[in-house]
Amino acid sequence: MSLRLLLPAEGVADLLSAWSDQPRVYDRGLTEVDEALSLDHFNELVDTGCAPPDEIAVIKAGPSNRTAFLTNGRTDPVKLSSLRDQGYTIRFGNLQRWLPAFHRISQDIQRETGYSNYMHAFLTPGGEQGLLHHWDQQMAVIVQVAGTKTWQLWKPPVESPMREFNESFRVWREDFIPTWEAAGPDVTVELAAGQTLLLPRGWVHNPHALNHSAPSLHLTFAIRERTPLWLVEQLLAEAVQQPEFRRVLLPAELELPALADRLAETKQAIAAFLDALDMPAAAARVRRAALTEQEYST
Fold first, then answer.
1. pLDDT in tens, 113-144
2. Which of 8, 109, 240, 248 sits between 20 and 30 A of 53, alpha carbons compared?
């Protein structure tokens, strides 16, 4: 099980059985994940410029920059190394797309959970900070590979964010950070190498290495939980087979009051379609989708 590369057996059991809505820290020890992207390996990717430019970002106490390390559209190792030495966090994104070991881990996690997922790696020089306060749309399994990182955490300000709904930058308010800072974090975690933090979706986090002299390297395994809305989408996916759902709506039908009538008719047609579904066959199809579908890209 690839989840056991990220968590001890107790943590895997907790994740699969409860899917906690509270942050938790586990001592996992060193695993193949630590070997697959060690601090030396990460620095080698920086110094050689071998990482795909579209999957790199540099961050220093603010938003990410996707161009500062480029020359003629390609990763420039001299620029990237210099930015690291200037204190910028280097983020390598979507490791599952370009590192075979992480591709295999991603596929195994999806087989174990039914959830699609992706992996990012963050190297933050000692005494520095990359991203500021924000929250994520899915469970994050934070695997600390080297050094120590401080995670200041606040309870979710929104309920059950997913996809674009309640995404932090879409509903951001200028008073968020001053309010959080004035109150102080609800939880503070000093995450050391060999430990893993489960960070449920919606929890505000302000991660930094400001109080540590050594560089911090952590891997974020973002696991996209399935939801009842996803089941609705899967159930309706076969509706395209029915001609009545493919007919053209005339422009006049998209005007009021005709639109209200069309919506009522469509609601009835959907109910009839769902009532006629072969549920065992639908369940088998949805299960296949859970194991193979990448719900959305990042």
1. 999 999 999 999 999 999 999 999 999 999 99
2. 109
